[in-house]
Amino acid sequence: xxxxxxxxxxxxxxxxxxxxxxxxxxxxxxxxxxxxxxxxxxxxxxxxxxxxxxxxxxxxxxxxxxxxxxxxxxxxxxxxxxxxxxxxxxxxxxxxxxxxxxxxxxxxxxxxxxxxxxxxxxxxxxxxxxxxxxxxxxxxxxxxxxxxxxxxxxxxxxxxxxxxxxxxxxxxxxxxxxxxxxxxxxxxxxxxxxxxxxxxxxxxxxxxxxxxxxxxxxxxxxxxxxxxxx
Amino acid sequence: xxxxxxxxxxxxxxxxxxxxxxxxxxxxxxxxxxxxxxxxxxxxxxxxxxxxxxxxxxxxxxxxxxxxxxxxxxxxxxxxxxxxxxxxxxxxxxxxxxxxxxxxxxxxxxxxxxxxxxxxxxxxxxxxxxxxxxxxxxxxxxxxxxxxxxxxxxxxxxxxxxxxxxxxxxxxxxxxxxxxxxxxxxxxxxxxxxxxxxxxxxxxxxxxxxxxxxxxxxxxxxxxxxxxxx
DNA sequence: CCGAGTATGACACTGCGTATCAGGAAAAGG
DNA sequence: CCTTTTCCTGATACGCAGTGTCATACTCGG
Lengths: 230, 230
Hints:
Chains A, B: Residues 4-64 form the HTH tetR-type domain. Chains A, B: This is TetR family transcriptional regulator. 2 copies of one chain form a homodimer. Chain A is mostly helical. Chain A has 11 helices and 1 strand, in the order H-H-H-H-H-H-H-H-H-H-E-H. The termini of chain A are far apart. Strand 1 (204-210) of chain A pairs antiparallel with strand 1 of chain B. Chain A binds a DNA duplex (30 and 30 nucleotides) through residues 2, 24, 27-29, 37-41, 43-44, 47-49.
């Protein structure tokens, strides 16, 4: 690793070009010329064109991994702290975050790439939440909670990206509120039902019965649900 | 549309080649020759090499969208039914699902592509759960619940893909249990033992049908599923 | 039998990504 | 101070995905 600063400059130049001319309209040769390096070096350092855009994100993922690995207390608390750390990494450099947000929103390929990035955070969270548990029940709980935390984080982050200057609570405060909501387990909106699955309004029928029930019993109940068909 | 069956055959030939020789080792020319069409036609029909692998998944996404659009009852119930429909689409054709599972696991590019696919389901769920609500609180709830449902579905699906012949409850039953866990809102595992998860001791029958089907048709299919009871 | 719309195939072209080789700068070693 | 080794860079060539264009065959309606 000769100089990390060099890569920073390359990334900056690339993002500027992508922003001005469009992502696919800019070739790697253009970036090479603008950054003052060869195309070979570009691919050698970043691997692919997409990776130039997400170079610093990669570092962020690694720092989150380190953060979780170093934590010793409550896993849920550690994951919450990690979510805050990620959000702070965005909000602390609004120009960078907003430029990439515009870029990613405009190009489907980059959107997919960012999804993959998010999935890596989610995998880290899941792994940390299910540490040492072989129990599949716990694994389910870990996966669901990780997904919920990621969703909450992305909700707050997107809101901030859409309107960074908006008044009201800080992003961190909003995230804390959202995480509280998640951990409180109110995944179902208060108005909704949430109970066992009823028959759908008329388009779909979902029936769940213990298999202990006899065939005739099941048939009878389905018939009843259908409105007493013969 | 001349013949949809033609595309099916092309996909089958392509998947076979990808499976045998590897994904990136197989060129689109190879696929074209094996499928008996030109490379031009291949790109015209599927758009990209990845899309050949996920062609039928695309149809599944559309059917889920249609399912949700057509539903009128409780949004949460509709989303649960949709998750069941997706799972069933996999488990009803084990050979196809398992071959693609092997393929996707082996190649990073396809993994990312599948993540994008999952994200589309999640977006559909979110959209349906937050119908008509401008309230950001509701939007957060919808996003979190959608993410949790997806996580539960993927948990069950992955377990089945890893070991399709495993004994115990059916995939549908496992999903129902997992969804119950999600909707019950106990995302965070308490320190205690089992938790409030319903004891899914016995088998359960889960049936999902479009309501376009007549009552008799539904009864007939349930009867058939029960083993041809009179 | 004939035109309109359409699916197909053939061909050329751009650009990403990889592999290989040569040259030069920095370190290692005497 | 000079040599050897190592590593980074740049240049060239190549494979292949994906796009655009044009000519041909096929279908449908008149």
